[in-house]
Design goal:
The protein has 275 residues and is an alpha/beta fold. The protein folds into two domains: 214 residues, NAD(P)-binding Rossmann-like Domain (Rossmann fold, 3-Layer(aba) Sandwich); 44 residues, no CATH class. Helices cover 45% and strands 14% of the residues. Helix 6 links the parallel strand 5 and strand 6.
Length: 275
């Protein structure tokens, strides 16, 4: 039985699905016959993903929410359960990074990283497990971490991803007697809008190396076409979001007696980015 047949008819929630790894994951799940709940803050971007899934013959629902707002993830999980009578896959993908030293860092940015990368992920895990238990699903929860969590000096962002690793491992232990599997996916450098908060010089060197001559404004999103060009032109240095999405599909399509604990997905060339 191929992946499409294994996943067909299931329900999934993907946070941060308006672009990058989240979008690629949502689209692949849709192609495999999964009803996908698309979670993000930008309605127009979510509608674009929804249309892409529909054009491929899949089904999706748009959920424009702020995952950092207390109770919103739990409410969405309940909505998915009420509407489809099941929840099989929870992909906690949403995350952000504000690079910089601890000495010169800003408390508000630290708090936003902790809220999004740790607390919202915890809320997704908790609500997902409760829903899967209530509907008797053989479920999969995928937490998107980072290769930054493999380094001891990766700053505040890296610390949030170390926390994700600990959360995943702890939850895996808690669920040993359940038919729910926890997979930690650690992407390396990937062509997404994740670097929108990086210093302009850092982003501009990649844009230039890819042969592009376009302006970069911190905080603003690069078009999908630009990101695709970056991925294609800088393959030794950057993964394509689809590379990471394929790892997610692999994990969630395994039989429940197989426990895929961790997958690292990185480009051939390592990139050591100062925190």
């Amino acid at each position: 039985m191929d992946e499409t047949e294994l996943l067909k008819g299931k329900t999934a929630i993907v946070t941060g699905s308006s672009s990058g790894i989240g979008r690629a994951t949502a689209e692949l799940l849709g192609q495999h016959g999964v009803h996908v709940y698309l979670v993000g803050r930008t309605q127009s971007a979510l509608e674009e993903v929804n249309n892409s899934i529909a054009q491929g013959g899949g089904t999706a629902s748009v959920a424009q929410i702020d995952i950092n707002e207390k109770g919103r993830i739990a409410a969405l999980v309940q909505q998915a359960l009420d509407e489809t009578k099941r929840l099989d896959i929870m992909v906690n993908n949403a995350g952000l990074e504000y690079p910089g030293s601890i000495i010169d860092g800003e408390m508000d940015k630290w708090r936003e990283m902790v809220d999004t990368n740790i607390l919202a992920l915890l809320a997704g895990c908790q609500a997902g497990v409760r829903a899967m238990r209530s509907c008797g699903a053989q479920g999969h929860i995928v937490n998107v971490s980072s290769v930054s969590a493999q380094r001891p000096n990766s700053g505040v962002y890296g610390a949030t991803k170390h926390a994700v690793n600990v959360i995943s491992s702890s939850l895996r232990d808690e669920l040993e007697n359940d038919d729910i599997r926890i997979t930690n996916v650690l992407p390396g450098a990937t062509s997404t809008n994740f670097a929108r908060n990086f210093p302009p010089a850092f982003a501009e060197q990649f844009i230039s190396a890819a042969g592009l001559d376009i302006p970069f404004t911190p905080g603003e999103l690069l078009p999908a076409e630009t990101l695709e060009t970056l991925a294609n032109n800088l393959k030794p240095m950057l993964c394509n979001p689809v590379d990471v999405a394929n790892a997610v599909i692999y994990a969630v399509s395994q039989p429940i007696n197989v426990n895929i604990a961790e997958i690292v997905v990185r480009p051939p060339r390592a990139m050591n980015v100062a925190h």
